[in-house]
Design brief:
mainly alpha; 88% helix; rod-shaped
Length: 90
């Protein structure tokens, strides 16, 4: 089997490092994913009990809209902070 030259090995390592930085889950992204998952579970558990009461009040649409904002906005902010933290750490 042919051995890689040092130049080719360095090029492959540079490409692998660039790919890992761009798409690989670093420690910041892993923490953001964990925080997003925990937030989704907590809000989902709360919503299970809450939507039963909203049907009795007749405010299902309004409660659903607030629920989506409550679910999505903090997740967006967590990921924005994660991407900004990664850029600062580079």
């Amino acid at each position: 089997m042919a051995q890689k030259t040092p130049k080719a090995k360095a090029a492959v390592d540079a490409l692998r490092g660039a790919f890992d930085r761009a798409f690989g889950p670093g420690p910041v992204r892993a923490r953001a994913a964990i925080a997003s998952l925990i937030w989704t579970v907590v809000v989902g558990a709360y919503a299970l009990g809450f939507f039963g009461a909203s049907q009795a009040r007749g405010t299902v649409f309004l409660d659903g809209a607030y629920f989506l904002v409550t679910l999505v906005l903090p997740i967006i902010l967590v990921w924005l902070a994660a991407f900004l933290a990664e850029e600062l750490l580079r």
